Amino acid sequence: MALGTEFAFSEFTSDQGVTYKLSIYDSTSAVGTTEFTCAGDGFVLTYKGEGDERYEPIKASSVKFQMNVTSISSPLYAIPNNLQSSEQGRYKLKIQRSTNLGVTYADFWHGVIIPDIAQFEDVSFPAFYKFTAVDGLSLMKKIPFDRDVYQNPTDKDDIKTFATILTNMLDYYTGGMSDFFGASDTFVRELTHWYEDTMPTAAAGISPIKYSATYPYAFVDIQYNEEGEIVKEKPISAYKVLEAILKAWGCRIWQQDGHWWMAHINMWSDLPTMNLYYRRLDTAGGVLGSGTSAEADFQKELGSISDGYDITKLSGSVYSFMPDIHEVTASYSNWTSAGMLGTEQQLVEYAGATPALALAQAESDLQNLGYVIASSGAAIDITHRVQARFNQSGTPDLDWYDQLGLVYMLKIGTNYWNGSTWTTTQSVYQAPPLSTATTLSGAGEDDYVPFGPYPQVSFLTDDIPVSGNLYYSVYKSQTNFLVTIDPIGDHNDYEAKIIANTTSSPSRVMFVINSSEVIERTFSSADTSSLANEILDLEEMLVGDGPTAGPPSWGRIRVSSDLVTWESDIEEDWQAWETGTTSRITQILTEQCLIGQREFLPLNNYNFILRNAAAFRFGDALDDNTQGGNRMVPNGWVLNANQDEVSGEFFKASQDISGITNTNVNTDQQADEGGWWNLGL
After folding, report:
1. Which of 417, 188, 369, 196 lies closest to 281, judged by CA?
2. What pTM value is reported for the model?
């Protein structure tokens, strides 16, 4: 849907000399522009958020205004019928702001007019039509996240940068908001400043959300049956995806100056010492430009009229506090019950008669199962069930006495598992043979028969010697083949396979710690000397570092130094603002969240007026000169445009990094049979 033509407009000048222009665009009709009068407040702009936690990431906004319709002959009269019969997004609202009586305008706010919250008076003319326009963020709540918008649906392994995912969501899921933007227009202004050491050196032109990526498949709830098989995939809402990404990065998003802004919530805590790098992104996530913002770009002075401040506090403000926090926790996991590998595996023969050639073949066949971490009790646990069949025409009628073995090569770094220890000598592990005396009478060539009781092969390695990617290959090895009745030719003409994992019959490769499946890591940042009893649980992250470097850890973050090659290791060297702790990104998150609320945090409900055409935007913090210069960050507020008055909730920007203890531990989680797997949504 295109933006269309300007269908109607209204201009008014506020009490303090700001001129606003409201333009309504119609994507369907080419009728000429009609001027109308805004009633009462001109318009009321609301940023939702009052009462939210400090780390609430999405700050949606809306505008209410009233249109004066003077007669039935006015083109405006048809709007109710048009809204009712047209799809959402037909009518859009652009608000522009001027401080020179409309000689020049700058974009102030964009939105989509919502039919189901419009109101129309059934009275004699003149009548007032009441409209509500939204910035589109709230519309994402009921829209499933469709990764296929930008990803081949058959390729789950296709990674996308966070910049691409973010801009695609804002492009497709906000009700047509992208119609306001051309190819060279700023769509998103982002100020992310958490870097991983694989990325290029931090700079204005280096965007962390472009040099990091994940798998869109991470944002799907998966339903299993009792056998552990996937029976349903359900995308979560686009709103939840946006929330999950922003939450993992410690960021908030809002609309300002007619485009989107994304910044760390702690950005306002210590503005003078931070490099406020920004990037301007287009609708496809490409960088249009970059630079460094000044401290003054994100703060406004608040004081009394007697002291001559343009932003003047009014009576009626209310002061309160957010609780002081003792500890912040968060967790990350995105494993399925299959562990590192739980799929069916067809087996080929291990050429044990020529050991050198066999070892070389096993080495060449190694596949990367993901990153594992060397720690006390960390090991590889393998449980496999095996089935076999004759690969021969006809219907054999015989007893088949056989011994079937499995041969494994497990490699981490330069270390191989030989069945008793990890060694730097190239080695394989010959598992004890599986013996059977299975009668194949009546069995056809397409019938697999199991070997013995389940599980067939099960072993646990010693503690892994180093952290790194686990490489794996496996083969069949037949011995002692005897046919006692009606020999039928080539006795080695058979097939064998490791069957797929199920809940009732495990058959999989697992990374374990102390024999427990590792599918979640919990991160904590705490002030151990604090007497506070408040613990903030950020709950489960859908994206993070690890727990493995490969599927099924779909939410794992991969970083790049050149936007071409993406690292497969678990990243443990993130840093916020180029200083302090280096750790996994979720650890950085818990620490950054804690340092902003280690005291009873002032939470003020202000009423203030914007004098002398002073500008105030949602990205502006207030330096409250009536309270010793506390820098107060907006949580949610309302602007009455005609009266130039703002009322809303603000919290103090705070940052205390001293004396924090960071920990992260592996924990276990189990899936409910037939239930949704561990996304916590």
Report:
1. 188
2. 0.80
